Amino acid sequence: MSTGTADAGRAGTAAGGPGGGRGGASGAEPAAGLRDAGALRRLAVATLDGNWEHDHTVPSRTLYPHQWSWDSAFSAIGWAHVRPDRSWRELASLFRAQWVDGRVPHIVFNPALRVGSYFPGPEFWDSASADGAPTAATSGLIQPPVHAPAALLAYRRCPSERARAALRRLYPRLVAQQRYLATRRDVGGGGLACVVHPWESGLDNSPAWDASMAAVPADAAVMRAYRRHDTAHADAAHRPTDLDYARYVAIVAAYRARRYRDDDLAARHPFLVECPLVNAALGAAEHALARIAPLVGADPGPHRERAARITEALVRRLYDPATGTFRPRDLRADRLVPARTVLGLAPLILPDLPAPQVSALVAEACSPRFGLAARMERPLPSHDRTAPDFEPLRYWRGPSWMNVNWLVRRGLLTHGRPDLAAGLRDSMIELVARAGCHEYFHPDTGAGLGSPAFGWTAALLLDVLADDSAG
């Protein structure tokens, strides 16, 4: 369901989302019009340093002061350019909180923070009641498995024997993460992992989830039992409504009531969707593991085979030939969702994506819906610009995000489109040069939105500044 009308969304900004999104402030921000690459690099390093928390990088220092899963992967990529040891500490700290079944939780909570300082906090998730949960307090959800590619990039950016040893320790945990998603989460039986909550996609309140969320029964009165912290940092009119939050809470409550078990998801769980981004990341991770395996004395063959199966399943189950893009599949309704969002471009990161799908996705990205070009006047949005529910100021319903731009850029380089990748890179740098390391950006004006001094924006800026060619 929509969080409001398009006109209302154009009237304000937001700080951070409830599960995958973040908000807050730390570090330094530039004056408008910063252009010097050295100054941009110093800004990015200062932002990461300001967000470093003894063994990991927090997304921001106020609203989201804990550790997030895919944020840590992106931070590791950035740290590899300036303090490589932090890349490995970042990933190691996250995977110490891995569950026995292999899941990597989307939040690892900092025990030093007071109870009630964040919602939904550790007392809400109650991970200690679940079988196989770690000692650390965590959520019970996952996020896109971008960690194996991040580890490979961190190693390639700064190879050393110490880095190889860290990679060797991490490898079995990455394999376990993949196994969990490929087995416990293949609810549809078609070879793809499903997400059990919109927060697992990383694109928390994307229009992609509206139809599936509308079918989740919830009462807004549920939220009276909780205190929302997001509305203390942002205008409530530009945040998800209490009914939206009630649905988010209802989905988690259903999962938590079964102690986060996956054995009966098909029979009982209210939200089951196969996401193009999560599954593209799953396939890209197998390709990365195939390259990591020889470095750590393992066999790359099984990873290559699994990668091929995931790509085939992704094309078979989520590609829509009528529109030339990938769409999430709602397993409850057994249909592809109608929204055309940036999620549909994510399979470009797969090196074995067939040529017809590559061509179709490039055409989709270059269409007026997204506006990709060798010289871009506006950054890549998170939702179709031409859609009636496009909202340029509302979280994940239109704004431009550095991490999604970064993923699409890597896909373009993988498939031989350095011209378009260069346009996207220039656009990413321009966003930060004009507005600073914000959480996200207005997709028309480039104005910084959400949290300033945001971790993954700084980390991925470092990566694109250092990378002029092949990515």
TrEMBL record:
<dbReference type="InterPro" id="IPR012341">
    <property type="entry name" value="6hp_glycosidase-like_sf"/>
</dbReference>
<feature type="domain" description="Mannosylglycerate hydrolase MGH1-like glycoside hydrolase">
    <location>
        <begin position="64"/>
        <end position="457"/>
    </location>
</feature>
<feature type="region of interest" description="Disordered">
    <location>
        <begin position="1"/>
        <end position="31"/>
    </location>
</feature>
<protein>
    <recommendedName>
        <fullName>Mannosylglycerate hydrolase MGH1-like glycoside hydrolase domain-containing protein</fullName>
    </recommendedName>
</protein>
<dbReference type="GO" id="GO:0009311">
    <property type="term" value="P:oligosaccharide metabolic process"/>
</dbReference>
<comment type="similarity">
    <text>Belongs to the glycosyl hydrolase 63 family.</text>
</comment>
<dbReference type="GO" id="GO:0004573">
    <property type="term" value="F:Glc3Man9GlcNAc2 oligosaccharide glucosidase activity"/>
</dbReference>
<feature type="compositionally biased region" description="Low complexity">
    <location>
        <begin position="1"/>
        <end position="13"/>
    </location>
</feature>
<dbReference type="Pfam" id="PF22422">
    <property type="entry name" value="MGH1-like_GH"/>
</dbReference>
<dbReference type="InterPro" id="IPR004888">
    <property type="entry name" value="Glycoside_hydrolase_63"/>
</dbReference>
<dbReference type="GO" id="GO:0006487">
    <property type="term" value="P:protein N-linked glycosylation"/>
</dbReference>
<dbReference type="InterPro" id="IPR054491">
    <property type="entry name" value="MGH1-like_GH"/>
</dbReference>
<dbReference type="InterPro" id="IPR008928">
    <property type="entry name" value="6-hairpin_glycosidase_sf"/>
</dbReference>
<keyword id="KW-0326">Glycosidase</keyword>
<keyword id="KW-0378">Hydrolase</keyword>
<feature type="compositionally biased region" description="Gly residues">
    <location>
        <begin position="14"/>
        <end position="26"/>
    </location>
</feature>
